Each structure stands twice: as structure tokens, then as C-alpha cells.
Amino acid sequence: MKKALLLFCCLLGGMVVQAQEPLIEPEEGRTLLERFTKGGKSITSSSMNLQFYTSAAANFVDGSLDEAAFKINGVRLELLGDFGKNFSYHFRQSFNKYSNPRSVDNLSSSVECASVGWKMNPRFALTVGKQAIQLGGYEYWVNSIRVREFSDFNNYIDCYQAGVNGCIILKPDQHLNVQVVNNAAGKGEEAFLYGTPEGVEKVKVPVLSTLNWDGYFFDRGLNLRYSVSWGELARKRDILYLTAGNVWEKGPIVAYVDLMYSREGIDTKGLVSELSATLPEGGVTAQHVQYFTTIVNFDYRIHKHWNVYAKGAYELGGVYKANGPYEEGLYRRTWNTQLCAEYFPMDNSELKIYLHLLYKKYGLTSRARALGADDSSSQRISLGLVYTIPVF
Hints:
Layout lengths: L1 H18 L12 H5 L6 E19 L2 E20 L3 E8 L16 E11 L2 E9 L5 H4 L10 H4 L4 E12 L2 E9 L24 E11 L4 E13 L2 E14 L2 E14 L20 E17 L2 E14 L9 E15 L7 E14 L1 H5 L5 E15 L2
Antiparallel strand pairs: 1-2, 1-16, 2-3, 3-4, 4-5, 5-6, 6-7, 7-8, 8-9, 9-10, 10-11, 11-12, 12-13, 13-14, 14-15, 15-16
């Protein structure tokens, strides 16, 4: 009987394996798209690059050495290109990010972009899949491998989400984007530093809607990128973003001023919430918080092989409505100052070696000190290498 049962299982397994036939048969010399469309469409353009960012850094806290170590700051693989006449694709994966299988997107958080674009007509284009939220600001929007140190505001945004974006092409150099994506902060307990506040109910449709205007002026030297975003974090707890990027990029100069504001029914960034870490009852997720950030940057390409820049950020965090242990008012001020020199050994900008200096000061108000938090400062000296390797 046991032998008969074993034979039956083997035959059934064979049938199952046989049933799992490939959707398309391998054909040498023909792309996947060409096989799907019976040779009717082909890849117009395709490229792959590997982005690599490493450094040796000495970190100091209040002037005393805390750690000196080599770091692999970023490794990312990117695929992008066009197929057919009006379609494009974009895929990018980071090998440094934590993978969360329970995310709203049903996709590892290490996958930053996985989208397909469709230019439906000369005035409208659609992007579907995982993509960046259409916030304003140069520091937020530029490829992150070009940023040595983010502002706190941008560093704590979960900026890649699944959804859809419609781009209305007003003019060749002016676009209006209407986007609806998942709101990762609406997924529940794990979205907030100390969990969802007591008595707050989970939202059933966690989405974030964004209206973005992107315009170029003065022969594309001036770029203005303004956005407003709104979504629900939980029932009767909303989030509002107002973000603006003002960029001058022409000749040897890249200069920008970013202004970013968020008003959050629950603290998604955790920067105010973390101030309560030493309370006897433990940390408490703050509600009704707001953050404002100003970022100023000036790059100057002094030679084809050399670039220098100075950058600063001033950030505020507070509570606009008292809740739990948090009184209404300002809690934290942060100053962030950076100086950097970059050397490009090759004639292009694919490889750079840099020396970066960072000074950051955390200034807390009496309200924050009442929670047990203290002022501090941090410094960092980094010598690093960034290489965008064009695979094909």
C-alpha cells in the first residue's frame, strides 16, 4: 500500500512539473518583447548601470571620536529604456535597504523603482508601478547617489511607493503631474517610531495624492518644482506636504534653495517622538506635529576635473496641538553645514573621489528638555568614491 501511494505521488508530481510549462519558449536572438508581440515590436533603447558609493569616515559626537570605519554607503542596480514607440520602463534596486515583505506595495522595500511609462499622446503620459512621490525640492528629487548628507526632512521620507502618475505636458518645458500612490505610513504599527497612538484607528485606504508643477525657464537654466500632497495616516489623522525647489543649473554653477513643510496627524518621521525615549513610561509616538526645512546649496565646477560645493540646512520640528506628554510649541532646531571637494579622474562624471566635511547641531527647546532630551552635535570627515558604472 505504501509503495502504491509513493508511486502515485511521484506520478502526480511529474504531472505537476509537466504542467508548469514556460509561457514562451526560449528563442535565440529575439527579445522577450519581440516574442510576445510576434516580432511586431522591439526594444528601442536599453541601458543598465551599477551605482557604487563607498567611503572611509570618522564620526564625532560633541567633538569626541565615536567611530572610524569603512562603509559601503550605496550599491544600486538600474535598468531603463524604451520599447515600441511610446513605452518606457524603469527598474532600480538598492542592495543596502531592509526588505520588508509586509509592505503595502507587496514588494521588497529594496526595490525603489519598478514602473512602465506610456506616452498616450503628445500632451499626456502615464506612469504605473513603483515610483518616487512627486515632491518638490532638488535634494529630494536628484539621484540620491549624488547626495553626501540629506536633510532630516528628506532622510525620513519613505519616498518610493506603488501607484500611478499622470503627466500633463503643458509645454515642452512645463509639466503638471497628478499622482496617487500608496501611503506607507498608513499601514499600521510599524510605520511609527513607538507604534500607533492609543485610540487611533487604522485607515482602510492608505494613499497619498500629489499635484506637482515642474517648469523650466531662461533656456532651462532655472527649474522650479512645486508640489502639494495630502493623504490619511489613520482615521482623522492626515498628512500634508508643501514642497518647493528653486534650482539654477547652468555652466559651472548648480545652486538651489529648497523649502519643505509637513503637517502630520501622527509623527511619520519620528524626530519629535524620539525626544520622549527616556520617559519613565517609555517613548510615545507624537501626534499633531509639523516640520519645516530650508536647504541652500552652491556648487561650482572650477575645472573639468574639480568641483566644490557648500551646503546648509536649517530645520524646525514642533507640535501644533497638545497631545499626551507633548505640549504645543517648538521642540527642536537643527543646523546642518557641509563642505565638499570632488575630483573627477576621467573626462566624464561617472567616477568621482571626494572629501566631505559635515557639522550638525541639534538645538532643543525647554519643552524637549522636559522630556529628558539633551542638546548634542555631530561631526564627520569622509573620504570616498562614487562610481556609476555603465554596464551597457
